[in-house]
Please model this.
Amino acid sequence: MTRFLLVDDSSVMRHFVARALRMTGLEISIDEAENGMIAIEKAYKIKPHIIITDLSMPEMSGQELVALVHAAPELRGTRVLVLSADRSDGRFDEMVRAGAVAYLTKPASPEKLKNSVMQMLTEGT
Model:
C-alpha cells in the first residue's frame, strides 16, 4: 500500500488531489494536513511514501516542510511533490535543491498529477 500525505491549507485542493490519486488504481492510504507544522508531525507517525505539498501555508510553509523532510533520517525515502501556484523563475530549481522530487503548478490536471505520481513511484523502486 502506498501512503500519501496531502498538505494544503485548502480543503478543496486536498480533496481534488485525493480524487486524482484514487484514479491511479493503486492501493493507497491518504492522510491530510492543513500546514507544514501538522504535516511534519504526521509524517513522523505515518512515514508516507509521497508527500504532496503546497508552498504558501500558515504556521509552516511547504518550502520549510520540504527542507525538514529532506534532512530527517527517519523520513529517508519519502519523496516530495510540490503542487503550487508559484510560477516564479527559479522556484523549481530552488525546491529541487531543498529536496523536492517534482514540481507542478496549479492548476494541474488530474492526469498530470497522476502521471507525476506514477513516475515518482517508478523511479523510487
